[in-house]
Write a structure and sequence with these properties.
single chain; alpha/beta; Aminopeptidase; Alpha-Beta Plaits; 8-stranded mixed β-sheet; 4-stranded antiparallel β-sheet; about 35% helix; binds N-[1H-indol-3-yl-acetyl]aspartic acid; Amidohydrolase
Length: about 450
């Protein structure tokens, strides 16, 4: 760990950093709107990742790409091969930087950019995510991205969770830190992650070892209901979650003439959906179940032989989620048995719960006090629980003796996350860049027992 570092505060003035960031505001807006317009869902962020690679390589960062930062077998919820190929081609047509694409081909759309200062000091890791949601953007004049001509041009893909902002923050942070590298020590690692939605990407980056040398780690999010001007230094409300698909396979038959020869997959799925939503709870904390998709059958007079469901379980702790998930497996198997059909389960995504490191949260809190735009700084929030696969990276850092956190930068939103009218006040990006740069510039001042 890094508590032995005793050099004094770097004395970086807020105004110098402010100037750097202010100069980048027009570029940040342009970046964000470009990424918003060419929204790419999880594992197909070919254009996005290539643009990030091009920008950071030009800045002089050392890059690790694709398979070097993503463990193939640990990826979850990957689209079919044909979709990956088609989306890569589309990215090329939409201006992806061709020379980087081979590294990302086949669903390896992540990268890590490293700045080694050459001066002794800790490794600081910042994680941003790059993927859009599977959602059609609202196309009307009331929605600013449409009005101002930067609504998504990719059907069924929309940045409705702010990851276009996160990616932009990562790029701008890279610029600021490179410009101020003489005032930095140690090593900065900027982690650009694919497929956060559905909690599918982070595990593969954790298992590739991208944070194994990281002493101080934070992931970030904007919005999530936190008011503008507010910073949450150590968000700790993430639920553990398991995402899975179920397919039921029965036997089709004449619904009038020989129904007894059929095995009804639709009824098995319906039975399972009701059973899943009536699972017993756990005394150790909150839990959730959601059957988000159920599709079955092929025709009115045919006993349905096929059904599929997309399901998620969540729990306040890993233990609660595991309990709910195991119950869910029993329900699915039971429903299949009732109707004499077979079933298959595919794991599509997962995340853990994780608690930020108290000493690092304290440091973030102290450093954030110097950012004038932050009018309220809190360590944690009681919030409607969501999930985050950055928890895999947090847990990996902590398991190796590093400190980890998850910061949320509040901002005004036009609609809730995952809504087709979602948009955010872009000024939050500069605030985030300033705050994260401050952490890196002042890391020498960190004290375990401060
Ligand atoms: O499980 C997922 O697919 C991830 C997705 N994650 C988010 O929406 C991020 C998120 C939700 N709630 C919060 C609160 C703070 C930061 C980030 C978030 C979710 O919970 O559905």
């Amino acid at each position: 760990m890094t508590s032995h570092i005793t050099e004094s505060h770097t004395g970086v003035t807020e105004s110098e950093l402010s100037q750097q960031v202010r100069a980048l505001v027009p570029a940040m807006t342009a970046w964000r709107r470009d990424l918003h317009q060419y929204a790419e869902s999880g594992w197909v962020e070919f254009r996005t990742a290539s643009k990030v690679a091009e920008a950071l390589s030009q800045l002089g960062y050392q890059l690790q790409l694709g398979r070097d930062v993503i463990k193939a077998e640990a990826r979850m919820g990957l689209p079919p091969e044909a979709v990956l190929r088609e989306q890569e081609q589309r990215a090329l047509e939409q201006g992806a930087v061709a020379r980087w694409l081979p590294a990302f081909s086949g669903g390896f759309t992540g990268l890590v950019a490293t700045l080694s200062t050459g001066r002794p000091g800790p490794v600081i890791g910042f994680r941003v995510d790059m993927d859009a949601l599977d959602l059609n953007e609202q196309l009307d004049e009331q929605h600013r991205p449409f009005r101002d001509g930067f609504a998504s041009c990719n059907p069924g893909m929309m940045h409705a969770c702010g990851h276009d902002g996160h990616t932009t923050i990562g790029i701008a942070l890279a610029q600021v830190l490179m410009a101020m590298r003489d005032q930095l020590c140690g090593t900065i690692k900027l982690i650009f992650q694919p497929a956060e939605e559905g909690t599918r990407g982070a595990k593969s980056m954790a298992e590739a070892g991208v944070v194994d040398d990281v002493d101080f780690f934070t992931a970030i999010h904007i919005g999530t209901g936190v008011p503008a001007g507010q910073l949450v230094c150590g968000n700790d409300t993430f639920m553990a979650t398991t995402k899975f698909d179920v397919t039921f396979t029965g036997v089709a038959a004449h619904a009038g003439g020989k129904p007894e020869e059929g095995r009804n997959a639709l009824l098995a799925a319906a039975q399972a959906a009701l059973g899943l939503h009536s699972l017993p709870r756990h005394s150790a904390g909150a839990s959730r179940v959601n059957v988000g998709v159920l599709q079955a059958g092929s025709g009115r007079n045919v006993v349905p032989s096929q059904a599929s469901m997309k399901v998620e379980t969540r729990g306040a702790t890993n233990e609660v989620n595991e309990f709910i998930f195991q119950q869910a497996m029993n329900v699915v198997a039971g429903a299949a048995a009732m109707h004499g059909v077979t079933h298959e389960i595919s794991l599509m995504g997962a995340a853990q719960s994780s608690t930020p490191s108290a000493a690092w949260v304290r440091f973030i809190h102290q450093q954030a006090e110097a950012i004038p735009e932050l009018v309220k700084i809190v360590d944690r929030q009681e919030a409607a629980a969501g999930s985050e696969d950055a928890t895999y990276l947090m847990e990996r850092v902590k398991a190796r003796g590093g400190l980890a956190s998850y910061m949320v930068f509040g901002c005004d939103l036009s609609a809730g996350h995952h809504n087709e009218r979602f948009d955010f006040d872009e000024s939050v990006m500069a605030v985030a860049v300033k705050t994260l740069a401050t952490l890196a510039l002042n890391i020498r001042a960190f004290r375990e027992d401060a």
